[in-house]
From TrEMBL:
A Gene Ontology cellular-component term: cytosol
Xref: PANTHER family: CHROMATE REDUCTASE (PTHR30543), NAD(P)H-DEPENDENT FMN REDUCTASE LOT6 (PTHR30543:SF21)
Listed GO MF terms: FMN binding; oxidoreductase activity
Protein name per the record: NAD(P)H-dependent FMN reductase
Record-linked InterPro entries: Flavoprotein-like_sf, FMN_Rdtase-like_dom, NAD(P)H-dep_reductase
Pfam families per UniProt: FMN_red
Length: 188
């Protein structure tokens, strides 16, 4: 394996649940073995809206934040993208993080996980198109986590561990597919 799996938390709101889900999904994947995982929280990464003067496809980056992001993605064996659904789409933070780079995504084994009140099926479909355009190799199993009735009065998840446990079969299936994609790429 060429590097850690990057687990990207896509929501950046001040009060959100992506971090809670991310923490428990990472734990589930780590317990399943097979990989080291590095969590990348887009809120902490804090990329500005794409501010590179040249097309990312040229790879001629000017800014340190872009070079760091490029190194992190290029050095990873695979990525997991955890995205919320906003108004039937994915958040601008996720699109921005993807748009910053280009060649780094090519042939990258990837697993997409959406969540939302209704599970985020629509944003999942939309983001699949974008990830396909940049050439990622996507695990086929769809993971759409329904969060209806899961919130407490503080707008956080009452029991994120229980939600991830409820979804663990499909999450592990998708994770194993991702491992197969990584192994397949390593053999080439
Ligand atoms: C601007 C906005 C739009 C939303 N639109 C949808 C939607 O279209 N479908 C859905 O299932 N949930 C929708 N929701 C509910 C979110 O998916 C839910 O609040 C989720 O917790 C958001 O992830 P986050 O808390 O990590 O930001 C929306 C939430 C926000 C803030």
């Amino acid at each position: 394996m060429s590097g850690d799996v990057l687990f990207i938390v896509g929501s950046v709101r001040p009060v959100r649940v992506g971090d809670q889900l991310g923490e428990h999904i990472v734990k589930l994947f780590e317990d399943a073995g097979d990989a080291r995982i590095t969590m990348v929280d887009l809120r902490e990464l804090a990329l500005p809206f794409l501010d590179e003067p040249k097309m990312p496809a040229l790879g001629k980056y000017e800014h340190e934040h872009t070079k760091r992001w490029s190194d992190q993605v290029a050095g990873s064996s695979a990525v997991v993208i955890l995205t919320p659904e906003y108004n039937w789409g994915y958040p601008a933070s996720v699109k921005n993080a993807v748009d910053y780079l280009y060649k780094e995504w090519k042939d990258k084994p990837a697993l997409l996980i959406s969540y939302g009140g209704g599970g985020g099926k629509r944003c999942y479909e939309q983001l699949l198109q974008v990830l396909g355009r940049v050439g990622m190799q996507l695990a086929e199993t769809r993971v759409n986590i329904v969060l209806r009735d899961a919130y407490g009065d503080d707008d956080r998840l009452k029991d994120a561990a229980a939600i991830v446990d409820r979804e663990s079969d499909v999450l592990i299936k998708a994770w194993q597919e991702l491992q197969a994609l990584i192994a397949n790429k390593d053999e080439l």
